[in-house]
Design goal:
Blueprint lengths: L2 H40 L4 H36 L1 H5 L1
C-alpha cells in the first residue's frame, strides 16, 4: 500500500466536498449579499428579511441540484470501490 494512493483518495474526497457544498452555499451567499445591500440602502433591519430569501434559495438549490449532487457522490463511491484492488494489492 502506497501512501500516495491514500493521499489521492483524500484529496479527491475533499475536492468533492468543496464542490458539493459550494453548489449549495454560493447562491445563498449571493442572495444574502443582495439582501444586505438592500437593507443598508433602505435602513430596514428586519432579521426575517435576510433569513427567508437565503432559506428559499438554499432549498431551491438543493431541489435543482439534488440529482447532480447524488450522481457526483455515486461516481465517487463507484471509483472508490473500483480502486480497492489498487489499494489492497
Amino acid at each position: 500500500m502506497q501512501p500516495e494512493v491514500f493521499v489521492g483518495i483524500l484529496s479527491n474526497a475533499l475536492f468533492l466536498v468543496i464542490k458539493l457544498v459550494a453548489a449549495i452555499i454560493v447562491p445563498s451567499l449571493i442572495v444574502g449579499l443582495i439582501v444586505s445591500v438592500f437593507q443598508a440602502a433602505t435602513s430596514i433591519n428586519e432579521q426575517t428579511l435576510s433569513f427567508l430569501p437565503r432559506l428559499i434559495v438554499t432549498l431551491f438549490a438543493l431541489i435543482i441540484g439534488a440529482h447532480w449532487l447524488t450522481q457526483e457522490l455515486m461516481d465517487f463511491f463507484t471509483g472508490l470501490v473500483m480502486s480497492i484492488p489498487e489499494v489492497v494489492g
